[in-house]
Amino acid sequence: MKLPVSLLSLAALALAGACRSTAGAPGALVAAPFPAIAAENLDGDVAVEARHYTDHKRAFGVDLPREARVLPVALKLGLAPGSTRSLRFDPARAALRLYLPDGTVVASKPASTIVTQFKRANERIVASALDARVLAPWSAAREANVYFDLGEAGELFVKRGEISRRVGEEVRTFGLEQALIGFELEVDGAPRSVFVGLAPTNGARYP
Questions:
Q1: What 3-state DSSP class applies to 122?
Q2: By Cβ atoms counted within 10 A, which residue in 14, 38, 124, 196 is the most buried?
Q3: How confident is the model at residue 126, as a pLDDT?
């Protein structure tokens, strides 16, 4: 499965504007966009998968886009098979962002700042969040959640596997499989920019 040309172009623009070089050479591009299928998500030492479970209300107890104005995404990160490198991921330094096909960039939101009116949901949001860690080999990697900030009501809204953006009187709707996630991690202490396609998945994920 290959990313659509529009996503490849978007990733190239993002890299050109924000990518950091692992070798310190000006302009060196070190990341490549990934499709959303896990078996193909290999870029050297990095393996990654991103999913949005459309029935996440069963796992959190609430509809997070409606109740907390965030989009939950389950990320799975690990060392590619055969790699002996050290991978480190820190959400506070990862600069997680969600790119929509129209160029909209949606920032992430720390789990500790997400509040609903339900205590159990708040605890679940934090408990299932991706934290700072040295990443395991892909065979032992486990999913954990990151959250993207949908802003004020009426700007961005999510329903099942689609995300919509209101621009004046116009509403633009995209399938989440058209979106792209970007973030930073470290490979043997050197920064690496990573891009991955997002796969909407029916059902809910349980710990």
A1: helix
A2: 196
A3: 94
Q: Which two tokens stand for residue 31?
A: 């990341």
pLDDT(29) > 50: no
Q: What was the pLDDT predicted at 204?
A: 59
3-state SS, residue 194: strand
What sign has the CA pseudo-torsion 47, 97, 203, 4? negative
Query: Distance between CA atoms of 177 and 161, rounded to whole angstroms?
Result: 8
Give the predicted TM-score (pTM) of the model. Answer: 0.79
pLDDT 10s digits, 75-99: 999 998 888 899 999 998 999 999 9
Q: Which of 171, 18, 12, 160 shows the shortest CA–CA distance to 4?
A: 12
Can you tell me whether residue 132 is helix, strand or coil? coil
Q: How many CB atoms lie within 10 A of CB 3?
A: 22
Whole-angstrom distance, CA of residue 27 vs CA of residue 59? 43
Amino acid at site 108: S
Tell me how far apart the alpha carbons of residues 19 and 202 are, in angstroms, rounded to a whole number: 33
pLDDT of residue 34: 44
Strand positions, DSSP E, the chain: 33-34, 42-43, 46-53, 70-79, 87-89, 97-99, 105-107, 133-134, 144-149, 156-159, 162-167, 170-175, 180-187, 190-197, 199-201
In the chain, where are the structural domains located? 5-21+30-201
